[in-house]
Amino acid sequence: MPQRNYSVLIVGLDGATLDLMLPWIDEGYLPNLGRLLRSGAHSRLESTIPPITPCAWSSFITGKNPGKHGLFDFVEPDRDGPGFRFTNASFRDGESLWACLSRHGRRVGVVNVPMTYPPEPVNGFLISGLDTPHEHSPFMYPVDIRQEIKQAGIRYRIDQQHLGNMRTDERRRQQLADIFEAETARTKAFDLLSKNRPADFRMIVYGATDQVQHHFWHFMDPEHDKYDASGAEEFADAIRDTYMHIDEQLGQLMDDIDDDTIVLVMSDHGFGPTSNVRLRLNQVLRDAGLLNFQQSNDRPSMFRKFARWLDEMLRSTLSSDMKRNLAGMLPKIRVWFENLDEAKIDWGQTKAHVNEAYRSSPAVWLEKRDGQTEGEALDLRSQVVAALKGLTDPATGQPAVGNCYFPHEIYHGPHTKRAPEVLPSWWEDGFLLEQSAPLKDVYPNIERSNSPIQGGVEFAGSHRLDGVFMASGGPFRQGFAFGGAKIVDVAPTVLYLMGLPVPDDMDGRVLTEAISDEFVQANPIEWETVTGEHATDDNDDSDHQQMSFTEDESELIAKRLQALGYIK
Length: 568
Fold this sequence. Notes:
Layout: E1 7-13, H1 18-26, H2 31-39, E2 40-46, H3 53-62, H4 66-69, E3 75-77, E4 84-86, H5 97-103, E5 108-113, E6 124-128, E7 140-141, H6 145-151, H7 169-196, E8 201-206, H8 208-220, H9 229-235, H10 238-255, E9 261-266, E10 270-273, E11 277-279, H11 281-287, H12 301-317, H13 320-329, H14 331-338, E12 352-354, E13 364-366, H15 374-389, E14 404-405, H16 407-410, E15 423-424, H17 426-429, E16 432-433, E17 446-448, E18 461-464, E19 466-472, E20 480-481, E21 485-486, H18 490-497, E22 502-503, H19 517-522, E23 527-528, H20 551-564
Helix pairs in contact: 7-10, 8-9, 8-10
């Protein structure tokens, strides 16, 4: 009778999509992923709404929908006043998969999973991921593994710092080389720690697939609105080459596993091209009577255009050290300059707004007023939706925003009320945000952008709902394609395969259809009742021991997200 007691290796390919993987597997470019495909089961993996890194990976980590874990994005409204603050793993509610495994006595090794900073104590080792402020931050547990990696001559990097400088072919070339080098070093560190500290569950996430798809899609895809035929001569295969490089890393990891180890490959979301539709959503809300701008920064249009040009020129030509030195010598000029083209919101006269500085996941937040009734809130939301759905693509005459999603319809749990009130369907429509202007008639609310993509600044590709799930080894069916898998299903499936009960507050299910009937019949799913410190907090106002970033850490996070292209 088959028994449940497997070890598990999860390899995360951030943003990977079957739309690219399957043809490249068929063509022989990805032999190790092809080996997994033939020897195991695979499905598209439905992400969260929105399909954005913090929200999606947190749902994997906890097996819960965002309404329970409460982490919706890289930013959330600052509770101490207007504006936003950056989030991290401490903002997430509920027990992590590796904490659950540690609680049951299993040893774990986790490297570079986004939204794991600060690193939690585990029965094993953990290196946090994308939300780490800086490489000098305390992002490794236990702390001595930093020296262990350094003594082995491995230069470990969290992610790329200079994607925003890809304005020339030479810089693009260098960035690709740096990305491949960083992922190779990540594999070496993971391999070193795994050998020195054997674990029953291991996981590593590679971010290269996400980064390169964001910035190189328009070289690969002749149907892209901003296809770059000239750049395609050298960079048409940049995304494929990135998948091939990660496939090599996967092959090295697979060569070291035994017959009792199951290999899972997953992504947090899929990917696809952006369109050249550009929206200025705060202008849309202003014209609907829902937002007011402060007028103190009104300057002649040509002055703003010059300031924007100068900003872009300096960012693209000065080195990081030069920019840092300039900012240090002239702090007042730096603050003045950064605010030249910023449309400041008059919060006292605003009912709804979008954080346009954070352009990767546009969401509409409604201002909550004392004494506001539920009917008034619903009416305000209806006005927002009408304004968004009234936007018409100037080229096609079709709606620019196809759908608007509401938290109470897609989430459930105590933190649902903390989510943005309206989520326009950017992942379905492909549009990007542009900065609004305080004066009317300076820029249109919607336009088709005909200018070439600015390397490293403007996304050429963006997230889609369906990611990747592949599983091989143990009781998984061979060469089996199925559907209906969701990102919240991975954690309960892992626990089941490792012979452990599934916490009853997880929203995911065990993917039994991908597992042999004999194994499932011999090993019924067990559940455990979750209480006390491991349960989701029922209080939606709870900070659940949040560790907010310091001002300096917030600035570092902002710079890193800016380097990756997520914020302006």
